[in-house]
Each structure stands twice: as C-alpha cells, then as structure tokens.
Design goal:
The complex is a heterodimer of chains A (84) and B (200).
Chain A: H1 2-19, H2 58-73, H3 75-81
Chain B: E1 4-8, H1 18-27, E2 37-41, E3 49-53, H2 62-66, E4 72-74, E5 80-82, H3 92-96, H4 132-138, H5 150-154, E6 160-164, H6 165-179, H7 188-192, H8 195-199
Antiparallel strand pairs in B: 1-6, 2-3, 4-5
Classes of the chains: A mainly alpha (84), B alpha+beta (200).
C-alpha cells in the first residue's frame, strides 16, 4: 500500500515537473497580424454611420466615398452646382 | 477603386492646423503624439509655404520593409495599417519613414517608448470595425462609416485632399487647370496683390 502511494506521488511529481517544461511558441509573429475586415463591410449599428450606402456592398461604398470627395473637396463642382 | 491617397496643396494651406486638431479630436490622440503636423518653409517670410504631413500610405512602404516583427499590413484600398498587439515599439519604422509619420507615446505600459502610433487614414486597425478596442488602439474608423479622413474633411481651404487616388487627382487637376499653376490666383498674390497688379 505504501509502495503504491509513493509510486503514485512520484508519478504526480514527474507530471508536474514535465508540465513546467511547457513553453509558449517563440517564433516571431507566431500568431500573425490579425485579419482586418474590408472597410465596406461597415461598422454595424452606429449613430455615426453615413447614410446613402449599404454595408457589405462594395460598389455603393465606393460611390458614397467618391460622391463625398467630390462634394466636400471639389469647390469648383460645388460652385457649378449652386443654383443661380 | 484605385488607392486611398492624401495630397496637400501648398498654394492653399494657410497653416491653420485645423487638420491637426481634427485628427487629435477625432481619435483622442494623447499628448506628445501627432499623427499629422503642418510644416512651414520660410516661416514669416513673404511667400512662405505650408504643407500638412502625415503617413502617406506609401505604395512601397519602407516601414513595412524594415519592421522586424512584420506588424504592418496593407488594406485592399492601399491604406498602410499596423497591429499594435504585434508591434514591439523598436522604432525602426520611424527611422525608415521619410515623412516622420510613426509616433511613439512617451508613457504607457511599454516603458519610455510605447508602441508605434500613426495615421490610419481614419481606417482603424485589425479589430472589429467600430468596436471600443479599435477606437482605443487606433481611433475612429471613418472609412467603414462611409466617410473620408477627418483632417481633409475639416480643412478650411480644402488644401488637404483625401480619398481615392483617381478622385483626388481629378479634383487637383481641375483646380490647377482653373486657377493656373502658381500663386497668381490663390494664396499670397490674391491677398496682397502681385508685382504685375501694382504696375497696371
């Protein structure tokens, strides 16, 4: 009985010792850079989302940005678009 | 869509620092970190020129080339972003960048020089779009909200243009063709007159 107990405790100690040998992978960038979602996939429900395009639709997102750039940054087209 | 690009029109920039303020406010950038700066040449001298500078999201980015832990990545829109969970704050990117874009906070968990921070073209980072963790690490993700970078949208004289490279080039081309090529229409000549104007 005593022998079995000592053997078991010895095995337990050996297991504990082996567990200490485990280590995390140390390769550079082991987990890699996280994958980023495409911008046109949107941010979900948010009060800051600009209306006029639908999340997930790349075409509508590109159109939205183009329209916004032209309207917000091209003052020559804005002047031309103004009612006389 | 081509690639997202910035361009600053030195004939229009009036060194108001509105772009810098817009950026700092939008992303709640801490003290000591300036993702965008206004550089003025010949400051105080008539004819001085200012230009707003941040990360130019290079097509062949030197920061990406020198990063020892490969934390940079480029989005489909050509925006150069980085993963702060991978960045070790070594500073190689700041030596490689010709624009001085990479910034390092002087306080924080990483000791004297923290993890690199830079302009994200208001495109956030590799976290869930619009999430709190993305905001805390990288700032707002305006691109995913259907908006353009805050600096360009807040520019009072529209000197700073941002967006799809084709669109930005189109706007700038229209501007140059309409106004002429120099400061004769916008800038110093308009405000204070030109030598030719005084003669007539």
């Amino acid at each position: 009985m005593m022998r079995r107990l000592s053997l078991t405790s010895l095995a337990m100690a050996a297991l504990l010792g082996l567990a200490a040998c485990g280590e995390k992978p140390q390769e550079m960038n082991a987990n890699g850079v996280k994958q980023d979602n495409a911008a046109y996939s949107g941010v979900g429900q948010s009060q800051y989302v600009q209306s006029g395009w639908s999340a997930g639709d790349k075409g509508s997102w590109e159109k939205q940005l183009k329209t916004r750039a032209q309207y917000g940054q091209n003052d020559y087209t804005r002047i031309a678009a103004q009612p006389k | 869509m081509a690639r997202m690009k910035f361009i600053c029109d030195a004939e229009r920039c009036i060194e108001c620092n509105g772009c810098v303020t817009a950026c700092k406010n939008e992303h709640e950038v801490p003290w000591g970190v300036n993702r965008r700066r206004v550089i003025t040449l010949n400051d105080g001298v008539p004819g001085e020129k200012s230009i707003s500078v941040a990360c130019m999201h290079c097509s062949d980015a030197p920061c990406m080339a020198v990063c020892p832990v490969n934390c940079f990545y480029r989005t489909d829109e050509g925006v150069v972003l980085h993963d702060k969970d991978v960045c070790i704050g070594c500073g190689y990117c700041s030596y490689a960048c010709p624009f001085g874009a990479p910034q390092f906070p002087s306080q924080g968990t990483f000791g004297v020089r923290g993890k690199m921070d830079k302009c994200t073209f208001c495109a956030g980072g590799p976290e869930a779009h619009g999430s709190q963790s993305e905001f805390e690490k990288y700032g707002r993700n305006r691109l995913a909200e259907g908006k353009l970078p805050a600096c360009a949208e807040m520019c009072s004289t529209k000197a700073l243009l941002a967006g799809d490279g084709d669109t930005v080039a189109d706007i700038f081309r229209t501007r140059v063709i309409t106004r002429g090529k120099g400061a004769e229409v916008w800038g110093w000549g308009t405000a204070y007159g030109t030598a030719e104007g005084k003669k007539s």
